Structures are given as C-alpha cells and as structure tokens.
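Below is how a single chain appears once it has passed through the pipeline. First comes the sequence as given, then the structure the pipeline wrote out for it. We keep one example in the README because the format questions we get most often are answered faster by looking than by reading.
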Amino acid sequence: MAMNIESVVQENDAEEDTCCKPYREQFAEFEEVNTIIAHLSDICDTQIAKERAIGRLIFILDEYQEQPHLLDPYLETLLETLLTTVRRPQCPAPLLHVVFTVLYLITKVRGFKVILRLLPHEVSDLEPILSMLDGYTDDFYELDMAGERNETWPTRYMLILWLSITAMIPFAMSRFDSGHVSETGETRKPVMDRILDVGKKYLTVTDKTRDAAAYLVSKFVTRPDVRITKLSGFINWSLDAIQSAKSSMTDMNLLCGNLSALSLMFKHGKREDILPYAVLILNRLSANNLISHDNMVIRKYNIKVVQRLGLTFLKPKVAAWRYTRGTRSLADSLAKNGTTASDCNVKSVELDEEDYDIPEEIETVIELLLNGLRDKDTVVRWSAAKGLDSKSFLVSYNIHNKSATLEYMYIKGWLTR
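Resulting structure:
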C-alpha cells in the first residue's frame, strides 16, 4: 500500500507547474488529499514515503492560501478521517505525529478559528488529550530524547488547540476530579490545575505552540467556574513572571507568552469579570516600562494589552451620531420624524455627551498609546493607532471633531504647529 501512495505522489509531482495558477472554483485535489490521508498509517514508518506525502500535501494546500474557503465543503470529511485515527486505541506515536502534522497544514490554510468549530469537544476527549499533553506520554518523551522535539511541535500545537475547545464543555470542572491514585501512590491533580499547568508550561516555548497556549489559558481562566478560583492566581503569576523576566531567551519567551495571554484574556473575558484587575495590571506594566523594550514583539504585545485595558475601563456604548436606524430613503426617514439633518446632528451630539465620568487611568492608557505611535516598528505603531481610535470613539464625540489627540501631541511637544 505504501508503494501505491508513493506512485500517486510521483504521478502528480510530474504535473506540478510553477507558473501563476488561475483563479480556482473548487477544491480539485480533494480525492488525492483524501487518499493520502487514508493511507498515512502505511507510510508513517517509512521516512522517504512520509516526506514525499507531506511535501505533496504542502504543495497542494498552499495553492489555496488565497482562497481557503474552497476547502470548507470538504473539511468535515478530512477531519473525521484524521481524528478517527487519533482516537484509535494504542495509536503509535509516529502515526500520531504524522496525523497532527497534516491537521496543522489544513489549519494553517483555513485558520484555527474555523478548524476549532469542527473539532469534536466531547467529555470523553478531555482525558486522552490531557494524557498526551501532561509532560507527554512515554512515546512522545522518546521522540524528544531522540532530538525530534522540533519536528513534533505541530502535534503539541494541535493538541492544545483541541484542548482549548474541549475545556469549554458546559460542565463544572470539579465533576471530572475523581481523586484517582496513580501507581506511585500520588493523588492525581484536579483537571482544572492540569489544564492550567499545560498552558503555563507552553507559554515559554519558542514555536507556535506558545500562541495556542495563550489562547487556551485566556479562554479557560474566563470560564465562570474557573474564574472564581483561578483567575486571580493566574494574573498574579503572570505579572510576577513579567516583572522578574531577565534578558535570557527563556525569560523573553515567557514574557511574550504572558503578554499574549493577558491581551487575549481581555478580549475573551467579560468586562465585569476582569475590570477589578485592570488597574493592577496597568500599574505593573507601566512600572516595567515595556514600551521601551528592545524586543519588537514584546512592545507590540504590551501595546495590545494597554489598548484592551483602555476598552475595559470605558463603558461600552454605541454613538448615536454614528448610526441611526431609519428607512432606506434618507428623505423619508427625516420626514417621518419631522426633523432636518442638522437637528439630527445636534440631538445625537447631546445624547453622546451625557454625563459620564472617565476613569483617571484612561489618561495613562492614552499616553502609553501615544508613545507607541512614535515606535520605530510599523506593527507597533499600527497597534497603537488602532487603540487610540477605539478609545476616542468611546470617550467622546469631541475627540473626533475637535482633534483632541493632536492637541495633546502639541502640548507634549511631539508636533509643531
């Protein structure tokens, strides 16, 4: 069977064309991809056949980077085939690695948010995923000792993503704690602690697993039952790690991972849940002066956390001057209400300028974002500009109309009239 799959790859290699590909209308290579996936178990132990199959999949799937939606009708079938293999009892580690590598290639093209919606998230999946991630099983440990850890990162990445959606099952995590005693006589940790340990462990790595770990932690600690007992502890642990970070590579990775997790936590969490910690986080980040850090990625994540802190301090609102529901015809809409366009503008401004106490911390947030506009790296400046735009929309109508932000920059001496 290995020879059959290799012959399929060889035949299609001859048809590869390096010229610009035309606009595609469907996933034409589905049958070939499905055939390769169906026979992964036959080639996982043969290095040459495995590399050729993976190379062929990379070539095919990369062709759909600009049209990933064409894969949508076939994703469920492909994922079902792959995950059936993963769920098989006593599945060997080499086969698991190949399967998760293929799953990562599909995720890279279509995006992890789309793939997450298709991954199974049943209660029965939680324990097997944790077993593979809890320091690895013996088979994965042997792969690491053989120097193949860098080649197995897609496995860790996809397992953590899978865990992030499985951990959101609508049952209290305490129900899964049976007090099971291991062979060494030790009581197994609660599931809640095991998931957090996995997230903290992989926030320090250099590969893409760190992004998945940050996503996992941010979603998990904002769960209603986890938030009560674990959110405060995780925030304190994260801030302590940021404050104690040195210039070593491990500390830089930990710093990036924690800042990414904090920014995603403010994105996924409810405002009323994370608002009590916002002042503490802002003060600690300001004290560390990360805006002047040498690492561009750290400065970008710092700005991202600051801008989402600002949105947390401000109450959400919809500006009346931006959108008013009416009929399709502007003239009909105005005639129905008996008003003119100028009257609408005046009323919307009055509604928008109701008494509202802006928190004092907003001044610190805006100053940090304005400093970010002066950064030498474009990605940091873009993130700061995005944050300023969202803050000015929520703070006041006058921010847009009277150029208060520019006035502030004149006062600081950053601009000349």
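The chain is about 65% helix and 0% strand.

See the next section for the split statistics.
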